[in-house]
Amino acid sequence: MVFGLLLSLLLGLLHFYLWKRLVKDTTRPGVVRRVLTWALVLLTLLLVATLVLPRVIGPAASEWFAWPGYVWFALVVYLFLILAVLELPRLALRGWVRRKPLEATAAAPATVVEPPPTPEVNRRLFLARASAVVAGAASAGVVGVGMANALGPPDLLRVPITLRGLDPSMNGFRIAVVSDIHLGPLSGRAHTERIVRMINETSPDLVAIVGDLVDGTVEELGPAAEPLRDLVSREGAFFVTGNHEYFVEDPLAWLRELEKLGVQPLRNESTVIRRGLGAFDLAGVNDISGSSIHDGPDFDRALSGVNSSRPTILMAHQPVQVSEAAFRGVALQLSGHTHGGQLWPFHYVVGLQQGAVSGLSTVNNTQLYVTRGAGFWGPPVRVGAPPDITVLSLRSED
């Protein structure tokens, strides 16, 4: 409830600012201003409905308003950012001259007639309209390109990783890492089919799905997830929960469904992956959000059966969990969650909260790989953070 109230307040302030800059400052009192005001009110209500109703009425029933609502969400973000950047030059061009009020004289009538607009008023109106046009065009362009990025095929990244303690016989072992597929009102079965096809074309040895697969229940989205049964890899496909798996009433239902589809959940547990004389331990921990239902991460349990003589690869949805992994000597952690920031410039905020946004980094002696994810959450827009599927190629230090 508190989050909902804060979000509503933020959206209200954003829309008030947009009304001030795009409606009040660019129009004179009259019919046009009233029409534009009511249009903005309706868009505000549409956005609130888009953020709230899908969890109440389900993804299928939400699709018709979720598309325009989430696209408007993205436009709101970039309209605000661009208008904020334009504030200083707009004020500089306006100058600080203000129209002097009419001074009453002894001979002046009791009622003062408002004079026609002065050059100063006309200049303010012109600058307000010009900045509104610039912001509108730029925002539409950014969101349009961002939609093409989000709805297009994910980038296929190939990343070599040198893993300490890896036996040379496992050189070239390929792990396809995918995260944040986010099946929901805007992404359905075709989205899953494309991801499965792209993964299979790489002929991976193992598939790691690092959380946030769905935004809904098995009943609502089970058919959209069905193509996962077509994943082909030598050692199988594995899954760990993300925070969105805990947004439904029964998150364990999805784990049972994935097992039916041939995807093995790792719930604070590990398994040994062997090839030839080499081996590594693959472990998985639940997402931090699971703690709300007593199903949170348990590193001690997940790593209790690993062998210190061989490397351990850990699947953990959130990059911030790497501190625990490094403390326990994990060689490599695979994560998602960040979407690479999804909408620039929010990657700066994500970096502050998670420590890593995308790509390969090292925390103490533990390597961390963060995929940008193959889907999107909220707006079907990615700016500066295209979706990806990553194939990691392991190699030994020798």
UniProtKB/TrEMBL annotation:
One of its GO terms (cellular component) is membrane. InterPro entries: Calcineurin-like_PHP (IPR004843), Metallo-depent_PP-like (IPR029052), Metallophosphoesterase_sf (IPR051158). Pfam families: Metallophos. GO terms for molecular function: metal ion binding; UDP-2,3-diacylglucosamine hydrolase activity. Residues 173-340 form the Calcineurin-like phosphoesterase domain. Keywords: Hydrolase, Membrane, Metal-binding, Transmembrane, Transmembrane helix. The chain crosses the membrane at residues 6-23, 35-57, 69-89, 132-152. GO terms for biological process: lipid A biosynthetic process. PANTHER family: PHOSPHODIESTERASE YAEI (PTHR31302:SF31), TRANSMEMBRANE PROTEIN WITH METALLOPHOSPHOESTERASE DOMAIN-RELATED (PTHR31302). This is Calcineurin-like phosphoesterase domain-containing protein. It comes from Actinophytocola oryzae. The lineage of its organism: Bacteria, Bacillati, Actinomycetota, Actinomycetes, Pseudonocardiales.
